[in-house]
Every structure is written in structure tokens, then in C-alpha cells.
UniProtKB/TrEMBL annotation:
Cross-referenced InterPro entries: EmrE
Highest taxon listed in the record's lineage: Bacteria
Transmembrane segments: 31-50, 70-90, 96-116, 136-152, 158-177, 198-217, 229-247, 268-284, 290-308
Organism from which the protein derives: Peribacillus deserti
Pfam families: EmrE
Protein name per the record: Multidrug resistance efflux transporter family protein
């Protein structure tokens, strides 16, 4: 239950990304600065935490072992995750981006066959290639149905180009985030903690953010004070707090693929938080009854997803115990 709670808390702080990014876009800020400033601002906060834990030197030592892997998966997990989200905010409101982002539930499940999980057998633990969690995947479809209901009344107000510009980049991000996260867990194992891994991935993606900053400066000039402050808030709320909470949750279920899918499914709650955030801070319209039906459908799907995955895990453990 603890990983699920951590996942929901992460979703709350992640929701600030959608609201603040849309706010910065409406105020005329460049998406290039919105993307790059967040991760640049994250570094001193994370570095301080890791230094207090005396984990900076061990982290740098591990990063030197496979610098290419860190650069690649740091770019995939953070660069290809956040830059597309900021780009999508140019064309779509935060609620639609938050809703589209829930495709990460399906994306995370579809990535399962590309990874190995630890299975307990009479002869001891063995690593086997993961299988598609079909039951969990069906529960994910319920979550997506709820999201469709929530957004149905608003989608008619958007053009096809706006929908595509808001959908395709976020779809890319939905695969990149769990892929980068899982690959780094696979590479690092238990040698570093959550804070070290987040800092390492942030440092590894820094060349990409510097490049975006240069492009942003040459095309849009320096960021405004308002955008700088809002980017700092995103860095703290979403970049540090939410990322660490989510990575901690996934760490707890690292060797249990069904439970991993359940943790990733908790991110569906971020669409509810994003809707409330837009209503309160951006004066968006109060959701209609259809949206509330969709919200309850999302919650139901998340609960069923978690229950199904947990039941499957318990069943497997009982079978192994019986054989031994």
C-alpha cells in the first residue's frame, strides 16, 4: 500500500507541471525556457540532499563506469519526457495535456516484455522476461475511458492541429519517462538511492537543457522574472518532490512488474489535480457532470488495477510456497 500512497502524492505534485506550464505559456513565456529552467534549478536542491547524505562521490564514481548509458537514459527519461510536455503546452490547455499524459499507464505496461523480473522458484530466485500484464492492462483501459469522459465536453472546442500537437509529443513522453526510469534502475541496482539516481539523471541530461537554453535565448530572449519564478516552483514541486516520491515508489516494487504497473497507474490522479488547479488558479470553467463521472471512473480503474496486480502477485507467491 505504501508505494500506491507515494504514487498518489507524486501525482499531486506532478499536476503543478501542467498548471504552471500552461500559465507560463498564457503569459507569453517560451516553452524552451519552461523546459530547461526546471532541470537547471533542480540541480542545487538535489546536490545538497545527496551531499548531506554523503552520496555525491559514490554517485559520480558509478556514473563514470557507464557514462554513455547515463547520458542516453538521462536524456530519454528526462529530456524526451519533459521537453515534449512543455512543447504541447503551446497548443493545448493543461487539462488536455494531463489527460493525454495518462497514456503512460498503457505505455508502461507495453514496455514490460523489454525487461526482466525476479521470480521465486523452488530452486531460488531467477530472472525471467516480463509478460504483458493483460488484466492490469484491461484495468488501465478503464482509467483511460474515464479520462475520455472527462475531456469529451472540451475536445470539441479544439482544432485537429491543436489536438495532434497536444497528443503526439505527450505520447512520446509517456513512453520515455517509464523507459528511462526502468533502465536506470536496471543499470544501478541497489548501489545508489533514489536521490542519487534522480540527481544522476538530471546531471546526465544537462547538456540537452543547456542546448535548449541557448536556442531559447537566441529565439525568444532571456526569460521573464515571472517565468523564472514559476519554473523554480515547478523544479521544487514537480522536479524534486514529485520525482523523488515517484522514483521511491518504483524502487519499492522494482522486482515486481505487476506492482510496478500499479504504481505507474497512480499517475492518473494527476488529471484530477490539474483540473482543480486550472479552476482555482487559471479561472477555468468548473467541470460538468460528465467530467465528474469520468473522474470517478478513473479512480475506480486505478483501484481495480491495483487490486488485480496485487492478487496476481499473491497467487504466484502461494504457488511457489506450495511447491517448496
Amino acid at each position: 500500500m505504501k508505494p500506491i500512497i507515494l504514487g498518489v502524492c507524486a501525482a499531486f505534485f506532478f499536476a503543478s507541471t501542467f498548471v504552471l506550464n500552461r500559465s507560463m505559456e498564457l503569459s507569453g513565456g517560451s516553452w524552451l525556457w519552461s523546459a530547461s529552467l526546471r532541470y537547471i534549478f533542480m540541480i542545487p536542491f538535489l546536490a545538497l540532499i545527496v551531499m548531506v547524505q554523503k552520496g555525491l562521490r559514490p554517485l559520480l564514481k558509478i556514473m563514470k563506469e557507464k557514462p554513455g548509458s547515463w547520458l542516453l537514459w538521462g536524456f530519454v527519461g528526462f529530456g524526451l519526457f519533459y521537453a515534449p510536455l512543455c512543447f504541447a503546452a503551446v497548443y493545448s490547455p493543461g487539462w488536455l495535456i494531463a489527460g493525454t499524459w495518462q497514456t503512460t499507464i498503457i505505455s508502461g505496461s507495453l514496455l514490460v516484455p523489454f525487461f526482466y523480473e525476479t521470480k521465486m522458484t523452488p530452486g531460488g530466485p531467477v530472472k525471467v522476461r516480463g509478460r504483458l500484464p493483460l488484466r492490469g492492462l484491461s484495468m488501465s483501459l478503464i482509467i483511460l475511458l474515464g479520462i475520455i469522459l472527462m475531456q469529451a465536453e472540451n475536445a470539441g472546442n479544439l482544432t485537429l492541429n491543436e489536438m495532434l500537437a497536444g497528443f503526439i509529443p505527450v505520447l512520446i513522453a509517456s513512453f520515455a519517462y517509464p523507459l528511462g526510469n526502468r533502465k536506470m534502475m536496471e543499470i544501478c541496482g541497489d548501489r545508489i538511492n533514489t536521490f542519487q539516481r534522480v540527481l544522476g539523471m538530471t546531471l546526465a541530461s544537462l547538456p540537452f537543457w543547456i542546448l535548449l537554453s541557448v536556442i531559447g535565448f537566441t529565439t525568444a530572449g532571456p526569460p521573464s522574472k515571472e517565468q523564472t519564478l514559476q519554473s523554480l516552483l515547478v523544479a521544487i514541486f514537480s522536479g524534486v518532490i514529485a520525482t523523488v516520491l515517484f522514483f521511491k515508489a518504483t524502487d519499492l516494487v522494482r522486482n515486481d512488474i505487476p506492482k510496478m504497473a500499479s504504481v505507474e497507474a497512480t499517475q492518473s490522479v494527476s488529471v484530477l489535480f490539474a483540473l482543480l488547479g486550472e479552476v482555482i488558479f487559471l479561472s477555468a470553467d468548473i467541470p460538468h457532470p460528465l467530467s465528474w463521472i469520468g473522474a470517478f471512473t478513473v479512480m475506480l480503474g486505478m483501484i481495480l488495477h491495483s487490486f488485480t496486480s496485487r492478487r496476481k502477485s499473491v497467487t504466484v507467491n502461494r504457488q511457489v510456497t506450495a511447491k517448496t
